[in-house]
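thought: fold this chain, then report.
action: predict
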Amino acid sequence: MIRYAFILILVSLMASCSSGLKVYKQNENPSPEKVSLEYCLPKNKLDILFTVKKTHLIPGVFAKYAKEYLEISPKVDKENYHWEIVSVEHQLSSVRDTSNVYQITGKLDNISANNWLQINNLSKIGGSSFTVSRESSDWSHFPDFTELSLKKIMIEESKSSYKTVIVDSVPKRIPISNTVLRNKSEQEMAKDAAKTLMKIRKRKLRLIGAINEKFPESGDVRFMVEKLEQEEQKYLELFMGKTETVKEQFVISFIPEDYKSYRLFNFSETQGRVQERSPENSVILKLKAIDNSSDSDSENKHHQDLFPYRIPGVASLQISQGGALLYQTNVELSQFGRIQYLPINFLKDKNLKFDTVTGAIKEIK
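observation:
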């Protein structure tokens, strides 16, 4: 069996030699002027997508009159914010492993263009450092309360004054009435809003109970009740307060170099992302080996008649904050795997399909 394996390897090496193709590491090529193709093995970049929810608690503008006019207590008594990480996702992409650059010498005319295209694609993808990118949000500002009352916010007031005139040489005081406009006070507007709220509820009840003499069709009733409930909610929020919820997404990108823990950012439930670092607010990504295969485990060392490719390693990926697990999955990372070798004539005689992310061979036909 051993003899048969030796003969097979020998035949493969002879076939590759006859093809005239040689593979060298970039700094070991004795004939750099004869390079037909240069490529490098891939490493993987991790893109971690975080979705964060921001909740804004807004007290009602008439909160202090809720008990007086509606006999209710406000739901929100002061402005506040709450942040929460609601989802985490990841994506893998390829970057150049500049420590594993190879050069092929010899004629490539008879080699499958598809094979070399895939290999070249692995060498053309740009690198990345530890960055934060692709931020987006829809919360540039929260809308204030815009509908305070259906009634006018100005009120007419009559003010009386007296004017002295001379009548038959006798001075007399004549009353004069002046009408002026003034803004309603906050309490007056709160009272108007409470009255409007009661009217909306009364009209909704009349619709539901079919009290009106001319009753609309069933479809119209549902539509009208729905609109009245929306208006009712708006006026109720003037006293109870309201909650606005929006989402933000951002990506943390980096290239892991070892099985270890990485601090991605600091996160506070009251402020979102912050600079202050503590065990409670640090978001940590931890990589743990599942498949411990590495380059040192490879039985074959690089030879100029062998074509190197990568078998990715498998790692457990965990993201947590303050001991609470946010995300967990397994990932294949090229730089944590090992380099294996095939006779270079495989690229001429066989149809190889490479994984364009990890560089692993997916299929040989």
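thought: worth noting. Helices lie at 2-19, 66-70, 113-124, 186-208, 218-240, 346-349.
final: tokens above.
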